[in-house]
Amino acid sequence: MGIVERKEREREEMRKRILEAAQKLFLENGYEKVSIRNIADAIEYSPATIYLYYKDKNELLYALHQIGFHKMIDAFQSALQLEDPFDRLVELGRRYFQFAFDNPELFDLMFIMTAPMDALACKNDIWDEGKSAFNLLVTCVQECIDKGLFKTQDAEVASLMIWSSVHGYTALFLRKRLEMFEENRRKELMESAFNLFNETIRHGL
Amino acid sequence: MGIVERKEREREEMRKRILEAAQKLFLENGYEKVSIRNIADAIEYSPATIYLYYKDKNELLYALHQIGFHKMIDAFQSALQLEDPFDRLVELGRRYFQFAFDNPELFDLMFIMTAPMDALACKNDIWDEGKSAFNLLVTCVQECIDKGLFKTQDAEVASLMIWSSVHGYTALFLRKRLEMFEENRRKELMESAFNLFNETIRHGL
DNA sequence: CAAATGTACTGAACACCGTTTATTAATCAA
DNA sequence: TTGATTAATAAACGGTGTTCAGTACATTTG
């Protein structure tokens, strides 16, 4: 008598089908193509059906944003194997930017758009994905402290500062605020600024 | 026979009237209230009329964004009077964040939304406001270098790094990505991270 | 001064959007 | 088989940015 189980399974399948259609549209055509109506078209259901499985568009975007975090943590994995914690730290920064560069829409969803956060807030829930990604950073910084590479003793504060810096650089680029620098110099300038930050914390943090 | 002059004047007045209505709506009710139709209502003209004075909504947003820069540069003014260039630098950072905190919608327009930048791009124009605000920072950093406070010799690269850091911290806050820290600790944590950054560049840059 | 030209403006439409609701069709339990 | 539950939808609501044909008025010309 597994009827309720089957129903539950079917429900999950439908949620997944919707999410996958959303992801496909999103990755193929960017944010503007992810309308409830477009998703409905893609899965050949009516727009109203989406609302039987997701409360609203924000909740759907939050689910997409979770997928983004899985992708990002994947991208971080091999960097975490690096022996030296400082090398690891620098590599994490590099990959944060690279991830944003390769997946601008996902990054948007993960760190810039307010919509997915609003979905969280109205569920009175906690941003688990963000927290666990941040903890990756904290662990790494803590190792730097333990090895005596940093004078600072507060790994969390140091991590926030490092995240801010790398994020700022990334967000300004992504939102076209670095286009005031000529295209030729831009890449070099950004690389220099990134290196300068690394050197500065290497010797001064 | 100043008819064409009068017409030109009337045209500028209308552009100004539209922009002021947009600004008013924007500051009073946030971004979502700035629709072409809302602006048209406010100035008691039809929506189509707006398009006789601004190419599209992006162009209007770009004009608003320029107003934002004037406000921000105003907010910077008194900090620029500070004697010590490093104190000045720190104060500029503080005010960047404070400006964002006090004018979140404007800050959005100035540094986060892509729309106004798209308006610029399709006119093949340069982001003058951004450049001149950035130059304020470069000048300050250059003074720090000249006074021997920083070892680095490239003021532009150092400025980009500093801007990135302060911007990142600001953008993460504004976009609710720091709400994973409990509300009580958050403010303190951010202040600590900001101070840590300042100390680090003070001794290590 | 009257007719012709130019232009400022608008109503209505187009093609979208997120979301809600009343209703129908299908499935399940008794 | 009947009655209750559930899944899906058509249609609408109230918005959005934008375009365009047409009107009414101002200006120039004969």
Automatic annotation (TrEMBL), chains A, B:
Q: Sorted alphabetically, which PROSITE patterns does this protein's record hold?
A: HTH_TETR_2 (PS50977)
Domain HTH tetR-type, residue spans:
12-72
Tell me if Transferase is a UniProt keyword of this record: no
Task: Give the source species.
Answer: Larkinella arboricola
Stored PANTHER family: HTH-TYPE TRANSCRIPTIONAL REGULATOR RUTR (PTHR30055), TETR-FAMILY FAMILY TRANSCRIPTIONAL REGULATOR (PTHR30055:SF212)
- Output this protein's name: TetR family transcriptional regulator
Q: Is DNA-binding found in the keyword set?
A: yes
Task: Point out the DNA-binding stretch(es).
Answer: 35-54
